[in-house]
Amino acid sequence: MVTKKTIIVTGGAQGIGKCISQYLLEAGEQVAIADIDTEAAAECLQQFSRHAESLLFVKTDVSKETSVRECIASVVERFQRLDALINNAGIAQPHSGPVENLSLEKWQEIIQTNLTGCFLMSKHAIPHLRSCKGAIVNIASTRAFQSEKNTEAYSASKGGIVALTHALAISLGPDIRVNCISPGWIEVSAWRKLKLATRPQLREIDHLQHPGGRVGKPEDVACLVKYLISDAAEFITGENFIIDGGMSKKMIYL
Ligand SMILES: NC(=O)c1ccc[n+]([C@@H]2O[C@H](COP(=O)([O-])OP(=O)(O)OC[C@H]3O[C@@H](n4cnc5c(N)ncnc54)[C@H](O)[C@@H]3O)[C@@H](O)[C@H]2O)c1
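Above: query sequence and nicotinamide-adenine-dinucleotide SMILES. Below: predicted holo structure tokens.
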């Protein structure tokens, strides 16, 4: 009998995370959506209702250790195992204004959610992942490696995730593999909760500036997540994978 994998997707109720949740459910796995937004999660529970037996929502704030501890306990209580953790939750707003005006509170909020959230979720998942020979996939960003102006907190949080990934891979191998995906521009407007969802408004130039010929889709990330947590990826750990249609490989002269 093939045992279904149990996978936690943080920030799994909207955007890239929602697509990852759907993709894994359709692949026959058990998914726990750990998200702070109950309204978005309620919509997911309804939309994914045919997978109800394989789906759990746990209201979770990844930036708070008590909430994280409760999340992991609820998932293990329901599914009796944990095979993979996808650390996707984040404040996905790169621009925070000129650094001279960036408040310490804002800086800490972004680091606490995007980076400390990955640490806390990983820390509490480790004992369960170890017993399943599991995997962690962290979602960073190409902004870990290149920047626009006024993106210090977000970029630092994502750079931290890339470094956390290789540190965890070394500490946790060979029992747990840890990898990272750094997406570029992924169009998520249609994957937000109903009251925020909009039809993507992309211009031809948005697509054509990508060497790959188009802006990214959440499915581009979801299928790599599925591969990285599969046995086919058992020799891959500590690595970062850029998915950006070649944008960060393009040389630009003005
Ligand atoms: N969309 C892109 O172009 C892009 C590019 C590179 C990296 N990323 C990264 O991918 C991830 C997902 O981005 P997205 O565009 O889908 O964002 P999104 O805003 O559409 O979704 C993020 C989800 O995370 C949840 N969340 C936020 N704070 C949380 C917290 N403290 N605890 C639990 N859940 C929380 C939100 O409720 C939401 O459901 C983020 O880490 C983002 O930085 C996105």
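The pocket of nicotinamide-adenine-dinucleotide is lined by residues 10-11, 13-17, 35-37, 40, 60-63, 88-92, 113, 117, 139, 141, 183, 185-186, 188, 192 (CB under 6 Å).
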